[in-house]
Amino acid sequence: MVVISRRRVLQSVPVSVAAVALPSGTALAAKAPTDPLSRSRWTPYVGSTFSAKSSTSTWSVRLAAVDDLPGSPGSDRRYALRLTSAAAGRESTVSLSRAGFAATTLHLVPGSNGTTWTAVVNRL
């Protein structure tokens, strides 16, 4: 006859729970989404072409640079995206997308010549 005491049961419960919780927690952490507004997400795409879609039109833009904001060199949360295009445009909120890159909504402000835009990300 096997005798199981309350002490044995209580001693075995935390081990079982820990064994079950660790793999699922690790799996969830591995699938955590990338922050769509982090500088590190945009930097590898400098020189790449994106589709910019506003409420009225769609055009191609090239990510020319990811620039520092004053007082925040290299910050992943404070930077400016500089975009260029052959098409002239005006200030608008657009969705930037490309193959393998989730669409991200940004507000673009045109430069003086109308074919460059800046999107500032400033998350304190």
How would you summarize the topology of this molecule?
Blueprint: H1 6-30, H2 39-42, E1 49-53, E2 58-68, E3 78-84, E4 92-98, E5 101-110, E6 116-122
- Rounded to an integer in angstroms, the radius of gyration calculated over CA atoms is 24 Å
- Helix proportion range: 10-25%
Helical stretch count?
Answer: 2
Low-confidence residue ranges: 13-32
The overall strand count is 6
Average of the residue pLDDT scores: 81
Strand proportion:
35-45%
The N- and C-terminal alpha carbons lie at a distance of 66 Å
Look at the helices and sheets and give the structural class.
Answer: alpha+beta
Q: Major beta sheet, specifics?
A: 6 strands, antiparallel, barrel
Global outline: extended
Strand order of the largest sheet: 1-2-3-6-5-4
How do the helices and strands follow one another from N- to C-terminus?
A: HHEEEEEE
Short overview:
This is DUF6916 domain-containing protein. This protein has 124 residues and is of the alpha+beta class. It has 2 helices and 6 strands.
Structural notes for this entry:
It is a single chain. This protein has 124 residues and is α+β, with helices and mostly antiparallel strands. The protein has a domain at 39-122. 23% of the residues lie in helices and 38% in strands. It has 2 helices and 6 strands; from the N terminus they run H-H-E-E-E-E-E-E. It has helices at residues 6-30, 39-42; strands spanning 49-53, 58-68, 78-84, 92-98, 101-110, 116-122. A 6-stranded antiparallel barrel has the order 1-2-3-6-5-4. Mean pLDDT is 81; it is low at 13-32.
